[in-house]
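Incident log entry.

Two folding requests arrived from the same account within the same minute. Monitoring flagged them as a possible duplicate submission, but the sequences differ. Recording both here for audit purposes.

Request one:
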Amino acid sequence: VDIRGNSIMDCGGTARYAFMAGPKGGLVIRNAALCRIHNNRIRCNSNLAANLGLFSIDLCTIYGLTMTDNHVQHGENSDALMESIAAGVSYGSPLLGVMLANLCGAVRVSEIHGEASIHNNHILLSMGTGGGLVLGTFGDNEEWKRWAARIKATAHHSMTNKEDAEEGTVSGEPVITSASVQGNHFESLADQPFSAFLLSRLNELNFSSNNVRTKTGGTAPGIIMGIGRGIISNNMLDILHLDQMGGGCLLYTSDAA
């Protein structure tokens, strides 16, 4: 799947025939392999008070992803629920970050395997709250593991037998997720907490040269957890919560506040 050079605007708005279909985000892809998303401008709105939580880019069950040079904007039109969402939870808490990341936001990539490159994107929250980037494998669905094995064999023109696919391997090699998140700009224009990024349950992670900019310091926690091995270097961050990284290195990271 190649998607490039598009302008997808105002998804989640009220349309004349909205009652005929369920609301979706700006770019929604399911069950695809070797996706390339480049140089698109995508804007989406949510309204949590009306139980409408969307993501401008919403990808699920993907094998192999390259997402570069996109401008992705999300706005949450109702902040009426923020007091109840954040009740008793500090703005810098990782718990709040996880909660916000799963409500609505700019980019969500769940059940991802293979190589994932997310580079040089501008991820903007224009109003309200939500998540900037949610990336990882968030379930242990056996059917998905078998699907990933079959897709890997097809994508690489490899030979595999039924037993290999059922075991979730191809030619004895496990299906892993290696993510590179570099050179992205996360920004919020609102005086509200938002989860800049949530990166979870990845085999490998290179998180470098990213920038988080907020209107109010201390309101944009970034969360990295459950990483096999990784490199985190040369980022300008508001708050970073790091948990359960098996190996790797953490180099100079500057507080932008």
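Request two (distinct sequence, not a duplicate):
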Amino acid sequence: IYWCYKYYADGIYTLGRGTSGLSLFYTLNGCGNFLPFYIFVSFLSNNLVSDNYYKNKETGFQKFIVTRINSKKRKRTEILSVLLISFIFRIIIHIITILTIYSLTKGLRLDFSGDPSYFPSSFFAFSNNSIISFILYIIYSSIGFSIFSLFLYSLINYTKNYYVYKSLGIIIAIIGVLIPAFIGNIGLNYIDESNPIFTAFLYSIYSAGLISPGIETLNSASGILNLHLYFIISCFGYLLMSASLLKIGYKKEIKNG
């Protein structure tokens, strides 16, 4: 956080302008603006809870539990644990980030007035009111982080190397940005940019749509309503992939005993 505050854009945030605190917050949370923080959050996504479940699988402790607890009940408990703990932890990261920024910039200034067109679009991503938009971003990004963590949890049975799994959050987070952007650029040669099916497909695999909702978009210009919709599509896409992988993995787990 201090690195971004001190050196981003030649230290623009050290000038102490009125909205610098809020601008710094959104800059930190956007992969296109400040990649290190995005990578840090992505790394945490599967190293909070899922990492322990992977260790249990590798050590055989999971099989020991299965003999004593109903397998479906255990899987359901693990899924809820991943979602809940990830959500709470992301909220905590936001709180720490906000407090740190507040101490550096001497304020966050959410209640500023003036012409909205003067301020960055991220200030009003989810609402014409900057405060409501800020609150919604905190909630949405925490939900998105928990769903992204669940997706990584669903890959436990498909990853053989522990160290590969530990870095999987970063790998998927980056690939999940590059592939939709690549497909989108190629698709524009054959498909209209406004095609809703094509856009929905891109956002269903767009990892930044979960981790940095509203800040990072695949469209050059997106309205407030569209940004809410894009976030829902990203959630649905990753939940669908997670459910499919979990179902296949569960059958594989039962078959192998």
